[in-house]
Amino acid sequence: MADRHNAQAGATAANEWERMLSGELYVADSPKQHEMNMRKRRLVQAINTSAYDAFEERDRLFRELFGSLGKGAFLEPPFNCDYGCNTYIGDNFYANMDCIFLDVARITIGDRVFFGPRVGLYTPYHPIDAAVRASGPEGARPITIGNDVWFGGNVVVGPGVTIGDDVVIGAGSVVVKDIPSHSVAVGNPCHVIRPITDDDRTYWQAKADEYRAWKDSLTDRRRATSR
Q1: How far, CA to CA in Å, does 91 sit from each of 5, 37, 167, 190, 218?
Q2: Do 194 and 183 contact (CB within 8 A), yes or no?
Q3: Domain chopping of the chain, boundaries
Q4: Catalytic residue flag (residue 182)
Q5: How distant, in Å, are the alpha carbons of 4, 50, 212, 216, 223 from that of 55?
């Protein structure tokens, strides 16, 4: 069904950019693709060469780069992407350094998503047949990531993958198939090793309560000594 839908979308696409976004084969040689790639290069260079403490400048540049970027989002440089404009990110997102988003197709990231360093989101695909591949056409399929997701470092997500809500992906995983909500998944290829349970929530809520009590005790001691 999805392949038939993509074929119909490709048949009605008016140009290479629309074919690219539809998931059908295209060649990246149109004026629109060149324009958007040069725009990306300008913005990414400005981000990656900005001063170490230029936080507001980088926030402005990332907001210009992406299709959308939610409240409280923060990305560490260096960063790179294909176009930027095809990436849509929710609130309170964090990405550590050296992340790469190849957003030839749309990348959608939900709220409260955390990425470790060197996470790669790769929407492009190339034909399996060597002759067709060498002749130039390529394609892409969208990546969708839900809310409350954490990726360890060096996670790679391939084209067409959907990751649900409340998911943890272990460091170094290569995700080539969908991952359901409320699960911990690791490996190459990445696979679910267990669900996230109420016991996990109870344990971590208790650890968080312990931390807050410790923090409050420090504050109380400072107040007592300052009197």
Answers
A1: 31, 26, 17, 26, 31
A2: yes
A3: 16-196
A4: no
A5: 45, 9, 28, 30, 32
The amino acid that residue 18 corresponds to is E
Read off the pTM: 0.90
Pairing of strands 107-109, 87-89: parallel
The residues with which 19 forms a beta bridge, in sequence order, are none
> What token pair was written down for 125?
């695909």
CATH fourth-level superfamily of 16-196: Hexapeptide repeat proteins (2.160.10.10)
Q: How far is CA 133 from CA 37, 52, 139, in A?
A: 21, 41, 10
Q: What is the pLDDT of residues 8-47, one digit of tens each?
A: 555 566 899 999 999 999 999 999 999 999 999 999 999 9
Alpha helices by DSSP H, listed for the chain, are 2-12, 16-22, 31-48, 55-65, 130-135, 198-226
User: Per DSSP, what are the bridge partners of residue 186?
Assistant: 191
Comparing CA positions, the residue from 157, 143, 159, 148 lying closest to residue 107 is 143
Q: For 132-177, what is each residue's pLDDT tens digit?
A: 999 999 999 999 999 999 999 999 999 999 999 999 999 999 999 9
Closest CA to 94 of 68, 71, 118, 73: 73
**How far apart, in whole angstroms, are the C-alpha atoms of residue 110 and residue 93?**
8
Interacting residues of 147 by C-beta distance below 8 A, sequence separation 6+: 90, 110, 111, 112, 113, 165, 166
Backbone angles phi, psi at 126, to 5 degrees: -125, 150
Q: Catalytic one among 34, 126, 182, 191?
A: 126
